[in-house]
Amino acid sequence: MKTNPLRTAAAIGAALAVLAPAAGCASQSSGSSGGGGDAAKIAFLMPDLASTRYELYDAPLFKAKMKELCGGCSVLYQNADSDAAKQQQQATSALAQGVSVIVIDPVDSAAAASIVRMAQSRDVEVIAYDRPIPKAKSDYYVSFDNEKIGAMIGKSLVDHLKAEDAEGGILQVNGSPTDAAAGLIKKGVHGSVDGGGFELLAEYDTPGWQPSKAQEWVSGQISKFRGKIAGVVAANDGTAGGTIAAFKAAGEDVPPVTGNDAELAAAQRIIKGDQYNTISKPIKTVAEAAAVAAHQFVRGETPKGNTTLFDTPSELFTPTVVTRENIKEVLFGPGGPLKAAEACTAEYKAECAELGIQ
User: Which first-to-last residue range defines the signal peptide (predicted)?
Assistant: First the structure.
């Protein structure tokens, strides 16, 4: 997806011209246009509505942690709804409102480089969230290890197929071609699937992570490889849902299908036996880590991270593979991200009882 060419330097300059001096506060972030400390503004720019996580979890959790850390700070939350040009507008608007830090999960990792450069030209720090921005060095990156996610779901599937003495090949449904995190997941999947003993029949980069696009492509592959698909590596729960819908629409048995994000719908599919696995990467972990890093920046401090990725100080966390065998413990146990009452509706009640989820 390309950035709208109308986002010219002149337009950006005009928008930024309305910047007003920030209110006084206990401590100032060095050079930040919006100030810091107890009166800082932090932009939280998320990429899409196709995944339910941003509205239900990321934004509320980030806001709650920021409020805990800095009672007078305010969070400007915007969702770009899969539109890179819209996200550019939102970043420009946030800068015009005097933010000290931008936390951004980019729609288009390449296009977001211009947002990083624009913010940094104003001495505003940028935290890349969940998805990296390889073409511009942001000030910090917070995420789960996406390459490891791909490796883990791929290995989980291959090991399961071997244990079941499955025959046939594998389809690989990747994420968005404009998402650098999707590229890392894809690399991790190939590391586990290539040479794993099952032929890779075909693979697809899903535009915008859209489940409908994944479903459409998988439908075509079912016709092409009927009876030969042993399993499907889907890069997230949305594309997994589209994949499963394609098999059901074709009247075919659903083979083991992977996922990622531990969304409620995916948990229900795993409980039902329709989806083989997902990845639990508690959003609270990354949302709160991003809030802590943002607070450090507005206080004039520099978060250190635990590694470096794309020449950016990074804080990467290790996720957990979830199947029917451990779903009760990981997703519904004490401190787990999901509640039994949410998942175990009438349609799933019997399977929940079978797994002891209550």
Answer: 1-22
Q: What is the DSSP letter of 207?
A: G
- State the amino acid at position 41 in one-letter form: K
Amino acid identity, position 164: E
Q: Which two tokens stand for residue 163?
A: 């244990």
Q: Output the pLDDT for position 37.
A: 60
Q: Compute the distance between CA of residue 270 and CA of residue 276 in angstroms, rounded to an integer.
A: 6
Mean pLDDT value across residues 51-73: 94
- Counted residue by residue, the chain has a size of 358
Q: What is the DSSP string of 4-66?
A: PTT--HHHHHHHHTT--PPPP-SS--TT-TT--GGG-EEEEEE--SSSTHIIIIIHHHHHHHH
Return d(Cα 141, Cα 127) in angstroms, integer: 6
Q: What are the tens digits of pLDDT across the range 82-91?
A: 999 999 999 9
Alpha helices (runs of H) in the chain, residue ranges in sequence order: 9-16, 53, 59-69, 84-96, 112-121, 146-163, 180-193, 211-224, 237-249, 264-272, 283-298, 327-332, 340-343, 349-355
Residue pair 52/58 in contact by the 8 Å Cβ criterion? no
Greatest alpha-carbon pair distance for the chain in Å reads 68
57 and 69 Cβ atoms separated by less than 8 Å: no
The domains located in the chain, with CATH, are 9-138+283-317 (3.40.50.2300), 146-281 (3.40.50.2300)
Phi-psi region of 301 (alpha: psi -120 to 50; beta: other; left: phi over 0): beta
Does the pTM exceed 0.85? Answer: no
d(CA 196, CA 124): 46
